[in-house]
Amino acid sequence: MNLDPTTLQALSNLVRSGQAVPVQVADVTLPKITAPEKWGVASATATGYVVRPVAYPNPADLRAAGVHKGDRVPVPYLTPDGEIATAMLWPLVGHDPVAGWWWAHNGWSVAHPGDIHETAAPNPVSPDLPYEVRVWHAMEGLLGADYVGSASAWETAAWCATSDAATELADAFVTHRTQAPKWLAAGQDAGYLRAEVYQQVGDNGGARRIHRADADPARPTYSPRPYGEWSPGRPTCLEIGPEPTWSSTDPPRYELKAWSASDGWRSVGWFYGRQDAGIAATKLRIGAGGPYAYGETIGPDYPRAWAHDWTQHGRCMVSRHPDVPYEEEVALRAAGQDV
Q1: pTM
Q2: How many Å apart are CA 283 and CA 285, to the nearest integer?
């Protein structure tokens, strides 16, 4: 793509000055049936960027807006040593209520390029869990060019009782790749690229960041425990305990507990789904070279789920970490334990 040197110089001067790069939204009438998220395509001008809204971030809507695979927009930014560099980014932008428009290519703020945009803090879930672990999950490839579906986004990974537990979990999310990327666009990385810990400071969703960890592009890929490997001696978590006092109508009801020989069982955090707790167990490398040899996910007990009766009767163990191989399952059942 040919670059207008005048436009590039003007944008570079804006970034160098420390000012927010202006964003103007074109007046476009969209269909009544439109994605709940706001999407648009950005073009560079000497005074900032112009965003043309689109109904959906898919190839058809992007082509209708004049955008084709391979198109790129110049985005000057300040490097850590204070120099101006220019990234060539896919024109698709999303909108965040707090940060405004952001580049789908890498999560950067359009107004403040060079870093992943921020987002709003969620409402607290419990006074017993004041620490939120928040992660930036970057999808592989370019939305609307290489694939359609989920976009890169900030996610609440867990809620924790202590800052130490939250910090340990945040660091674990960015230390290893779960799998090696197969198709990345130029200037892109994928997976969990940033993890932050926020401490709730009020009852209305106010929070302050107390920790941030960024992924190294050269981080190693996670090596799982060999399938079927069994080390006898898995301890059982006997003290399940009650749920916290919830202040949310949609609380995280799955608790991950982890065991080490030195400290025994401890609570890692609370998660919105059983799978989310399993992802955290993988990131902590439970039973696969991490600080914990074993773990369990404790969740709601629905004894009549088979009859579509979702009345909760306390809590129970719903998953073991690492997975239980067949030989161990036989031994556990012979000992009268649930698997």
Answers
A1: 0.91
A2: 5
